[in-house]
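Records of this kind hold a single protein each, on a pair of labelled lines. Below, a sample record shows both lines together.
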Amino acid sequence: LLEDVGFKSIHTYEEGHCGFGDAWSFVVAFKSYIARQRWFRNSAEVDLEILKRVKHTKTGKSPLLYFDGATMQSYQEPPRGIETVFCRRNPTPRECLDPKLIYNPELPSVDVSAFEVKVSATAEKAGRGVYAKADIPLRTYIAPYETTRNLRVYPSTYKIIVDLYEEGPVESLLESMGITGETEAYKEYECLYFYLHAYGFTNRKHGAREVTVDSSIITFVNHGCRGTYNVGVETEIDEFSADPDEPEEALDGRSHAGTSIFNPVIDRHLLMIGDMNIKDIKTGDEILDNYVAFVGSLEEWEEDIEDLQAMCKGEIIEGSVTDYEEYYGSMSGGI
């Protein structure tokens, strides 16, 4: 019903301080999907907003008895009971059956030590690639423990980085501090920006654009052109059958696109387990993922698909990481 009248994001939470003996369940609905960014703010951001917006007391203590940033964070993950009821729908929502979202301890997993980094065989200057050091049977979790340690740059932090670098202030700000493009400090900032965009993948699960980067050698996994990928998300299309001008049909129903109006499964498992292999992998095989499934939004679809098509056609001979490293490697002092 709430979806029918135009709400774009719906959340549930429980509160046990209502004076009714048991915790009560509440529903919060937003008219804009981007409002999720405010709902999922961290405790420090919430505490800062409270400090700004709530009248101060003479004692200096908070006038709020049962609410602060930490309490708000506890509201962000829906109760397990709500997820259970959601998954009893008929037909069962696909997210409830996705082992990449809901960890299945009965399925096998392999540690990151089962992989090694060598030069990728996908293209002449594709850079690094990840290879299996042992056979990996179908439907095995790929280094699931490492996923819990991924670098996650949430919307508010990502916006600061982008605004400073792309919108211009970073140059004048750094110059006022005596930092120019010729200094190590400037290169370090540029490296941060480049690192996020070269190795990270974007989504809008928290309402606005954010970036996640694998923290282990899994970050060097390359794209498998023409459906040759052996891990990740299976899609009915690849980079060549995808139409850059028609993203909606391609993205329809993808849970990881993060655009569900009400989905407690996604909200409870935003830190996903990670990849599984969708084909048997033999010792020495290069691990290849499906980058088509990494497109974070409709707005990025055209550019990302055209880049993948160019890469798989050989029109982009040198990877962006290789190009960046060769540029700084040719300068005095290297990277």
